Amino acid sequence: MNVWQWTPIKRGYKVWVLADKSGYAWKLDIYTGKKDNAVEKKLGERVVKDRTENIKGKDHRVYFDNYFSSPDLLRDFKENKIHACGTVNPSAKSLPMLKSDKEMKRGDYDWATSNTGLSVMKWKDKRSLHLLSNFHDPTQTTEVARKKKDGNEIKVSCPIALSDYNANMNCVDKFDQLMGVYETDRKSRKWSYRIFWYFIYATVVNDFIIHKEMKLPKTTLKDFRTEIARDLVAPALVASRGKKRSLSSHLQSKKKKPNVLKSVHLESSSHQPERSTRRRCAECSSKKQQIRTD
């Protein structure tokens, strides 16, 4: 399943993200602003169409919020065999009139269908919510838990399309959450630096998601990032071992024992044990009970 989400930001750069249910970002695109100093009409529709060009006819499911959603877009997706669902602005063109809020109570919903296979649904919770879909049956319902003012929990009816939308609309949020956990972004006068590092961190997050999906040994994002950093600097450390340099420069901290990464262990002859004269161990020489090595 593919998910689109757009969060409005007053200042800064914007990124269009296409992510799947695991949070893996399939496509990232920087929004560069107006073209030819003119405001682009139907920007949301154009962005979604551009990013879904290669999944036409494959019955993929795409979810997005009301910034992108419109009857014209979902009609186009229907013709190209792309299942789409999203919230929609009730003032959007070509939408039918549904029950007013005054006529509805919590858990009530109204719907209408078109001869092109689109369904528009209005569901009343604390506030009303409008949903547009080109593949859901508007008559199918499910139940969701809601709390009353006295704290008691009740079950209220809602369209199954809404339950499906809520279950799949947080995919970009997962990606954003992982991106922000160990954010190292810094202010810079050159926006290109920030964009460059954004894509670097996005690559690391995608690698971490792949690591989890392949059911490899469990690790945290922090340890995963640390291991990548250590692997990147390992070749330089290996090369420096052949030079005449005091071991103390590699042992800045006495709290941890020196070690060689598993990924580069036995990679070259510089890692092999060498027999020489007895000498003092750089790690143990500071202890009360000193140990000499061969």
Kindly report how far apart the N and C termini lie: 60 Å
Spatial extent as radius of gyration: 28 Å
The assigned structural class equals alpha+beta
Unreliable sequence segments: 1-8
* C-alpha geometry: elongated
What's the SSE pattern? EEEHEHEEEEEEHHHHEE
Largest beta-sheet characterization:
8 strands, mixed
| Residue share in helix | 25-40%
- In quaternary terms, these chains amount to single chain
Question: What structural keywords apply?
Answer:
294 residues, two-stranded antiparallel sheet, 6 helices, 21% strand, disordered N terminus
Written account of the structure:
With 294 residues, the chain is of the alpha+beta class. It has a domain of 180 residues. 28% of the residues lie in helices and 21% in strands. The protein is built from 6 helices and 12 strands. The strands form 3 sheets. It has an 8-stranded mixed β-sheet, with helices on both faces. The longest helix is centred in the last third of the chain and has 23 residues. It is elongated and about 90 Å long. It starts with a strand and ends with a strand. The N terminus is likely disordered.
Short characterization:
The chain has helices spanning 43-51, 71-79, 160-168, 171-181, 191-213, 221-240, and strands at residues 2-5, 14-20, 25-31, 61-64, 83-87, 109-113, 119-124, 128-133, 141-147, 153-159, 279-280, 292-293. The chain is an alpha+beta fold and 294 residues long.
Structural topology:
Layout: E1 2-5, E2 14-20, E3 25-31, H1 43-51, E4 61-64, H2 71-79, E5 83-87, E6 109-113, E7 119-124, E8 128-133, E9 141-147, E10 153-159, H3 160-168, H4 171-181, H5 191-213, H6 221-240, E11 279-280, E12 292-293
Parallel strand pairs: 1-4, 4-5
Antiparallel strand pairs: 1-2, 2-3, 5-8, 6-7, 7-8, 9-10, 11-12
